């Protein structure tokens, strides 16, 4: 006889182990990791919750933790009337979430040709795949330097990334590998602060090179880039990178830069 539906164990259920609210629009959380899940730092999976009708509400989420971490971390927006995040933002430690263990994505080291300097370019929750890649030893073994540019409207929205970067140097696994290789360049577009402006403008004007004392401009022999933001941001950054002679790569044809959407739509 078949077991009643409610008694069937869902193999894709994981348990929330930690939740941190960063602003009224942003939070991060950690969940248990299925033992069988293998992924490359920078990839995304489908996660979700059961809807009122019992059907799962699933959305794509970058895994923000590195491949070696025994748990999985996610960094999330809160869309007030969003089918998933209107509920997900209320999750608490000990509660279950659904995780489909099929990681995919293009923001992976395998999709880039070897280079000397790697640029991580993100807006908003587009920081998530870089939260994984910044903690990935391969990043520091493969490149002489890494520049993390992250742009949000307000300073509070940079806090998850700011704290993660600050903690990196004390990390037992990669602190030593990083040395002085990391340059971090957070900017705001709306709130006044020490560093401001859009990533595209700061790259084309040369401001980021001047502020960080870096050799510029971008050069396809030396520079590689990974890009994650809104559709409009990704399109604008791609045009800038192509203007400097960099070519888009993929898992099957590695090249100079790779792109992934941080979400679909215009953003909230
Ligand atoms: P939805 O119906 O999915 O979205 C409603 C509207 O909210 C969208 O039309 C869009 O305008 C806006 N929106 C959705 N997500 C965002 C966002 N992240 N930032 C700003 N505006 C947004 N979201 C994350 O929070 N973290 C991630 O790591 C993440 N990774 C993604 C990776 C990929 C490849 C893709 C395609 C999307 C990713 N998303 C991520 C977006 C995510 O899949 C959902 O859209 C988001 O969780 C909102 O779900 P929802 O059901 O509440 O609202």
From TrEMBL:
Keyword Cell cycle appears in the UniProt entry: no
Entry-linked SUPFAM superfamilies: Ferredoxin reductase-like, C-terminal NADP-linked domain, Riboflavin synthase domain-like
InterPro entries: Cbr1-like_FAD-bd_dom (IPR008333), FAD-bd_FR_type (IPR017927), FNR_bac (IPR033892), FNR_nucleotide-bd (IPR039261), FNR_type-1 (IPR051930), Riboflavin_synthase-like_b-brl (IPR017938)
Keywords: FAD, Flavoprotein, NADP, Oxidoreductase
Gene Ontology molecular function: ferredoxin-NADP+ reductase activity
Cofactor(s) named in the record: FAD
EC number: 1.18.1.2
Domain FAD-binding FR-type per the UniProt entry, residue ranges: 9-110
Enzyme class: oxidoreductase
Any one biological process term the GO annotation gives: heme catabolic process
Catalytic activity: 2 reduced [2Fe-2S]-[ferredoxin] + NADP(+) + H(+) = 2 oxidized [2Fe-2S]-[ferredoxin] + NADPH
Protein's UniProt keywords contain Oxidoreductase: yes
UniProt family annotation: Belongs to the ferredoxin--NADP reductase type 1 family.
Protein name: ferredoxin--NADP(+) reductase
């Amino acid at each position: 006889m078949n077991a009643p539906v409610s008694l069937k164990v869902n193999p894709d259920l994981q348990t929330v182990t930690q939740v941190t609210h960063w602003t009224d629009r942003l939070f991060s959380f950690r969940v248990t990791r299925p033992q069988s899940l293998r992924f490359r730092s920078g990839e995304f999976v489908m996660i979700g919750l059961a809807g009122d009708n019992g059907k799962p509400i699933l959305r794509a989420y970058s895994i923000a933790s590195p491949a070696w971490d025994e748990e999985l971390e996610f960094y999330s927006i809160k869309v007030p009337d969003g089918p998933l995040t209107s509920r997900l933002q209320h999750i608490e430690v000990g509660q279950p979430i659904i995780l489909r263990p099929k990681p995919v994505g293009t923001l992976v080291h395998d999709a880039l040709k070897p280079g000397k300097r790697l640029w991580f370019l993100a807006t908003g929750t587009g920081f998530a795949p870089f939260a994984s890649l910044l903690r990935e030893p391969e990043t520091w073994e493969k490149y002489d330097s890494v520049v993390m540019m992250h742009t949000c409207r307000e300073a509070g929205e940079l806090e998850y990334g700011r704290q993660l970067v600050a903690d990196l140097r004390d990390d037992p696994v990669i602190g030593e590998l990083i040395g002085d290789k990391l340059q971090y360049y957070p900017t705001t577009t709306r709130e006044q602060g020490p560093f401001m402006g859009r990533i595209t403008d700061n790259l084309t004007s040369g401001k980021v090179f001047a502020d960080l004392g870096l050799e510029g401009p971008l050069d396809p022999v030396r520079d590689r880039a990974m890009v994650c933001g809104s559709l409009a941001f990704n399109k604008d950054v791609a045009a800038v990178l192509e203007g400097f002679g960099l070519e888009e790569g993929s898992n099957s044809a590695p090249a100079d830069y790779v792109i992934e959407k941080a979400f679909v739509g215009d953003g909230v």
